[in-house]
Structure formats: structure tokens, C-alpha cells
TrEMBL record:
A Pfam family it matches: Oxidored_nitro
Organism: Roseomonas acroporae
Protein name: Nitrogenase iron-molybdenum cofactor biosynthesis protein NifE
Gene name of this polypeptide: nifE
Phylogenetic classification of the source organism: Bacteria, Pseudomonadati, Pseudomonadota, Alphaproteobacteria, Acetobacterales
Pathway(s) where this gene product acts: Cofactor biosynthesis; Fe-Mo cofactor biosynthesis
Family of the protein in this entry: Belongs to the NifD/NifK/NifE/NifN family.
GO molecular function, one term: nitrogenase activity
Length: 483
């Protein structure tokens, strides 16, 4: 590992904006947040994957993975981040390092040729180059190659030095943020600015969620200058330092960007959520108040309240038909980060009961918000082993489970309704319209008649007397006796 990368990781671990690390002693803080990774089990959990997740939604640039083909295969498009225009980000670019490249030390030359070819074919505004474990271990200097390519080709080449072995996915998110701070943000000027320009940080436009929020800001006359990085363009991110306010959606991922932009450019930030009616309204109010404080017209606050009143009334009217199906239903929420409290808030708004919520990848501030919302910390769990999760569901402690795709089979085995709440989903849940979508999906899952059918005993498990001597039970019982 190069000294520059070691220094960058140490800087990330000492991030003052991270409450979790700030609460540690000096010795513990030096260890950072990384957890030992199991060799061969890095897909979905290594630093490279975290960096790719954070940056790939910049849609008009080339994302070039320097390493073996499998790294790009594992890291490509695992978040359903949608684009309203350019589709270059949907193409997988890799140097496809082979054994001879490693033995002969030709990785850097191969990387430069790949950058040159990508620029010639696609003419992107920039090329993001991701280091992976193999070139990092053999000493390929991607920063030097990127500098040389930028000078020769006239296109910014951004080194993203986050090889998988340095730590977890969350560390990779932050290293991606450092790459933006070091090489992108502040390198270009916007064509124009307004007193109501804002950035949203840590939002990836999963299944088009940004598109449910952007129209609300537009109706208020608030200009979304850059979303870092959902449905983003390179120029927007490069000129993001001219915005007036930053909204932080997922602090566990990109808190370093928010804090350092405040430090360097004087842009205040706040953390908010677009999950749930109340949280969406709070985000709009806070944004308007900060903009007015920074010079926007004072009447923006009145217009914001008028919009919130109209949108809340419309949303609750659309939710009303689903209340009977959802009120009092118990939910096991197994997610993490900002969703550990924002989804809790959304579900409690519609009268559902939270059995427990996972706090994986959640900051101390996230946990404090859960306590504030639920008035207790008894429902918070770090992680639940599959066997224990299955027992909870099988014993009827929850009516539905909300989680990511990797735990869906535990719920299905327990014959319990399940709804995808993580990045793999295909339905957007952000904003007022997103809350209506979430309620409709919950009702659809809970009311699905398939659950009544799969919970019924199989005909051969029902004694003939209990079946009332039915024509089906008797032959089945007789066949079982002969066997």
C-alpha cells in the first residue's frame, strides 16, 4: 500500500464529522472503521466496490476499472442508479489484467492504452480510474498514469485509489469522496449561479428516486445544482462548490465531502431524508430556511409552507385507502445507515409497529434519531443471525420483513411477506409520491392471498377426521399408509 493511500485512509478515519470515530480513544481511532475481510468474499463488501457504488452514478464519464475482468463484473451496476440522459456509465470498462501483465509489469502501459482508447471512442468529459487489489499489490501507480494521460489527451483522468483489501465498502465510499474533493470539486465554474442553488450529497437516484424529489424543489424555485452522485454530470460535480447549501442524505457514506466543502467553501450542510411525509417536509423547510439565511428571498419560506400543505394533504388522501391493511401490522426492518431511522419514521407515520430495526452501518447520530423517534432503544439491533431471524418470523413476531435481497429467502422460508427496501429494488420510495408507492407495495405484499395458501397444512398432513372425511384427505392418508 502506498504512503499516500495510507495517509488518505488515516485522514478518513480521523474525520471530525463522524460521531462514531470521534467518540473513540486515540488508539481505537487509528484502527478506523475497517473490518477484516474474508478472502474470496469481497463482492458487495470491499473498498473498491464501495468506491464504484459512490461514483458510477456520474453518468457521462468513463468508469475504467484497472484490474482483472472479475472486478468489473462484480462491481458493475449493482444499484439500479438511473440516468435521465447519458448512458456511458452503463458500459463496463476494464483493463482486464492477465497473468503476463502482472509478471512482466506492463499494467501501467496497459492502463494508459485503455484510457486513450476510451477517450477516442467515447469523448467523455472525464475518465475515472479505479485501482483494484492486483495492481495495488504489484505497485502500479495509477495517479502517475492519470496525470500523464490528462496532459497528453486533454481529458481529466481521476484516480480512485481504493483497492479492495484496504477495508470495507463504507471506507470505499469515503475514499471515493476524497477523490472528488482532490481532483473534481472546484475544478470548473458553473455557467451561471442563483441564490437558491443547492447540492444533494449521498443520493444515488436508485430506481429514479431523485426524480420524485427534484420537481418539489423546482416548484419552489430552488435549483438543484448537483446531486452527488445520482444522475450527475461531470461538470455539475466539478462546479458544486458554488452552491449555497448542501443536503446530506447518507452521512455514513459521504460526510467527509459535506464537512470539507463547508470548511473550504463555506457551504453549510444538514442531514435529512426524503423517506416519509414528515421527513420530506422537514427537508424542504430546512433547505428553504438555510437558503434564506444565505441571501435567498424571504418569501421562499411562505411558498415552501404552501407547497408542503398541499402535498401532504394530497399524499394522505392517496394513502387513506390502505390504512385498514397496514395499521397495527408489525415490521421487522433489516437495513442500515440512514434507512435505519428514516424508514422507521415513514412506517410509524402510517400506524405500523416496528419489532426491531438494524443499525448496521449506522452512525451514532442515526441511533440517536431512532431513540428519538421510537422513544426507546429496545428495538435496535446491530445484526441478526439468519437462524434467529427465521425463528422470529416463524413464531409470528412480525407480519412482514423489509430488507435487502440477500435476506429475502429467510422470510420466504418462514412463509412471511417480504419487501425489498435496499438498492436492488425497482420501485422508488422517496418524497411524497414515493411514500404512497411504499404504502401501496406494503399493502400489496400483506394482502397477497398466496400467504394464506402457503401457511395452510398440506393435505397429507391433515388427519382424515380433521378434514371432515374429505375426498382428498382419505386417498392421501391411504397412500401414506401403503408407503
Amino acid at each position: 500500500m502506498s504512503r499516500s493511500l495510507q495517509a488518505k485512509i488515516a485522514d478518513v478515519f480521523n474525520e471530525p464529522g463522524c460521531d462514531k470515530n470521534a467518540a473513540k480513544g486515540e488508539k481505537e481511532r487509528k484502527k478506523g472503521c475497517s473490518k477484516p475481510l474474508t478472502p474470496g468474499a469481497a463482492a458487495g463488501g470491499c473498498a473498491f466496490d464501495g468506491a464504484k457504488i459512490a461514483l458510477q452514478p456520474i453518468t457521462d464519464v468513463v468508469h475504467l476499472v484497472h484490474g482483472p475482468l472479475a472486478c468489473e463484473g462484480n462491481g458493475w451496476d449493482n444499484r439500479h442508479a438511473a440516468s435521465s440522459g447519458p448512458m456511458v456509465y452503463r458500459t463496463g470498462f476494464t483493463t482486464d489484467l492477465a497473468e503476463m501483465d502482472i509478471i512482466m509489469g506492463s499494467g501501467e502501459k496497459r492502463l494508459y492504452r485503455a484510457i486513450r482508447e476510451a477517450v477516442a471512442r467515447h469523448d467523455p468529459p472525464a475518465v475515472f480510474v479505479y485501482a483494484t487489489c492486483v495492481p495495488a499489490l504489484i505497485g502500479d501507480d495509477i495517479e502517475a498514469v492519470c496525470r500523464h494521460a490528462s496532459e497528453k489527451l486533454g481529458v481529466p483522468c481521476i484516480p480512485v485509489n481504493a483497492p479492495g483489501f484496504v477495508g470495507s465498502k463504507n471506507l470505499g465510499n469515503k475514499l471515493a469522496g476524497e477523490a472528488l474533493l482532490d481532483h473534481v470539486i472546484g475544478t470548473m465554474e458553473p455557467e451561471f449561479t442563483t441564490p437558491t442553488d443547492i447540492n444533494i450529497l449521498g443520493e444515488y437516484n436508485l430506481s429514479g428516486e431523485l426524480w420524485q424529489v427534484r420537481p418539489l424543489f423546482e416548484r419552489l424555485g430552488i435549483r438543484l445544482h448537483a446531486c452527488v452522485t445520482g444522475d450527475a454530470r461531470y461538470r455539475e460535480v466539478a462546479s458544486a462548490h458554488r452552491a449555497r447549501v448542501n443536503m446530506m442524505v447518507c452521512s455514513t457514506a459521504l460526510i467527509n465531502i459535506a464537512r470539507k466543502m463547508e470548511e473550504r467553501y463555506g457551504i453549510p450542510y444538514f442531514e435529512g431524508s426524503f423517506y416519509g411525509i414528515e421527513d420530506t417536509s422537514t427537508a424542504l423547510r430546512t433547505t428553504a430556511a438555510l437558503l434564506v439565511r444565505r441571501g435567498a428571498p424571504a418569501e421562499l419560506i411562505d411558498r415552501t409552507e404552501a407547497l408542503i400543505g398541499a402535498e401532504e394533504a394530497r399524499a394522505w388522501a392517496r394513502i387513506a385507502p390502505y390504512r385498514r391493511s397496514l395499521e397495527g401490522k408489525r415490521v421487522l426492518l433489516y437495513t442500515g445507515g440512514v434507512k435505519s431511522w428514516s424508514i422507521v419514521s415513514a412506517l410509524m407515520e402510517i400506524g405500523m409497529e416496528i419489532v426491531s430495526t438494524s443499525t448496521r452501518k449506522s452512525t451514532r447520530e442515526d441511533k440517536e434519531r431512532i431513540k428519538e423517534i421510537m422513544k426507546t432503544d429496545a428495538h435496535m439491533v446491530d445484526s441478526i443471525p439468519p437462524r434467529e431471524m427465521y425463528a422470529k418470523l416463524r413464531n409470528g413476531e412480525a407480519d412482514i420483513m423489509l430488507s435487502g435481497g440477500r435476506t429475502q429467502f429467510t422470510a420466504l422460508k418462514a412463509k412471511t411477506p417480504w419487501l425489498d427496501i435496499n438498492q436492488e429494488r425497482h420501485v422508488a420510495y422517496a418524497g411524497y409520491d414515493g411514500m404512497v408507492n411504499l404504502v401501496a407495495e406494503l399493502a400489496r405484499a400483506l394482502d397477497n392471498p398466496v400467504w394464506r395458501e402457503v401457511r395452510r397444512p398440506a393435505p397429507w398432513d391433515v388427519p382424515a377426521s380433521a378434514a371432515g372425511g374429505s375426498s382428498l384427505a382419505a386417498p392421501v392418508a391411504a397412500a401414506a399408509a401403503r408407503a
